[in-house]
């Protein structure tokens, strides 16, 4: 493979990235800013949403974007794929979609007579699952295997998916005809769920102004990094420290959701792990080598709310998982914020 020189050093293949040293935390912050700046050329006025989606990807997690049509859900996925240099595929989920339509299938080779596997659209670094709740349960099960195991099984044979493998799925919360609600097990595999929302007045005017000035529909985005660099960024996130006070805070939040009268099932240990992963990625994007309680607070609703199972009476009262998590954040005492000097002293006390 010929490696080109990119804005953050030499672009490298995924195999080369495996043997390379992780990037520094400062590098993560620099790259994240550059990626977000480039994506904002296409997606206007949603920096906080873009940062949250990018944080999920840096934490090696799948992201569910839920909002009404026309709020740039698909544009966000396409733009991130272009800017990160990832191979991209889009699956439009429909009620008649079958597993082999997305996983691929084997067919007999005319010359040898042997079965040859033809990969489906899941074989990409970044897969956009548009309106994922329109897929029937059997097809959703195939997506679940891909999300959890990073592999697909076709004709009894398992095939590994490329690295990195990330799913950005969308669903429309206001339309129920022809849809199949995502089961809790699949919702649990999404590290982060975000809502885009409408842009502010100024942002929407700027969106229109740019479109008029551009003269064409699409925005030509340049790749800032590649798949190998993304793997190195994900490795750098794994160097972020989280002290026992922060970890205890995460567990206390999870326990508060379990004890809430509105829930049948609160946040699981997998949800606690996901909250720590996402908070570490947020700290890295901020250029900090450690997690603060504010990192946990900033991502708690997006990581935990969709994993809660509410009691029927809570639905009748119009409560949501986000309300339960918000109540837990208000109820659980916040530990003191760790500083970089505190971390240095802790490391020194721990010894080599």
Account of the 3D structure:
With 352 residues, the protein is α/β, with parallel strands linked by helices. It folds into 2 domains: 7-239, P-loop containing nucleotide triphosphate hydrolases (Rossmann fold), CATH 3.40.50.300; 241-335, Helicase, Ruva Protein, domain 3, CATH 1.10.8. It contains 15 helices and 13 strands. The strands form 5 sheets. A 5-stranded parallel β-sheet has the order 4-7-10-3-11. Helix 10 packs across helix 11 and helix 12 (293-304) runs antiparallel to helix 14. The two termini are 39 Å apart.
Name some characteristics of this structure.
about 350 residues, alpha/beta, Helicase, Ruva Protein, domain 3, 5-stranded parallel beta sheet, 15 helices, globular
């Amino acid at each position: 493979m010929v490696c080109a020189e990119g804005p953050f050093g030499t672009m490298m293949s995924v195999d080369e990235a495996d043997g390379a040293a992780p990037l520094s935390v400062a590098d993560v912050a620099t790259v994240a800013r550059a990626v977000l700046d480039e994506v904002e050329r296409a997606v206007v006025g949603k920096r906080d949403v873009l940062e949250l989606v990018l944080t999920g990807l840096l934490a090696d997690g799948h992201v569910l974007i839920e909002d009404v049509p026309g709020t740039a859900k698909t544009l966000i996925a396409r733009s991130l794929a272009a800017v990160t240099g990832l191979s991209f595929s889009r699956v439009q989920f429909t009620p008649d979609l079958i597993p082999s339509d997305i996983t691929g299938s084997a067919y007999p080779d005319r010359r040898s007579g042997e079965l040859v596997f033809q990969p489906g659209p899941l074989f990409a670094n970044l897969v956009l699952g548009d309106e994922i709740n329109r897929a029937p349960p059997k097809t959703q099960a195939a997506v679940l295997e891909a999300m959890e195991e990073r592999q697909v099984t076709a004709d009894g044979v398992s095939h590994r998916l490329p690295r990195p493998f990330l799913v950005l799925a969308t669903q429309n919360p206001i339309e129920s005809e022809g849809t199949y609600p995502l089961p809790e097990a699949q919702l649990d595999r999404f590290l982060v769920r975000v809502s885009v929302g409408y842009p502010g007045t100024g942002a929407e005017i700027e969106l229109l102004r740019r479109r008029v000035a551009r003269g064409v529909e699409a925005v030509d985005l340049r790749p800032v990094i590649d798949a190998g660099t993304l793997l190195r960024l994900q490795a750098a996130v794994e160097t972020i420290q989280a002290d026992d006070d922060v970890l205890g805070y995460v567990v206390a939040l999870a326990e508060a959701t379990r004890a809430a009268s509105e829930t049948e099932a609160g946040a699981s240990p997998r949800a606690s792990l996901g909250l720590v992963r996402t908070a570490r990625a947020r700290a890295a994007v901020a250029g900090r080598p450690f997690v603060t309680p504010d990192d946990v607070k900033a991502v708690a609703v997006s990581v935990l709310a969709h994993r809660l199972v509410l009691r029927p009476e809570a639905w009748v009262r119009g409560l949501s998982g986000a309300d339960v998590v918000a109540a837990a954040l208000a109820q659980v005492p916040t530990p003191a914020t760790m500083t970089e000097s505190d971390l240095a002293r802790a490391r020194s006390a721990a010894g080599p």
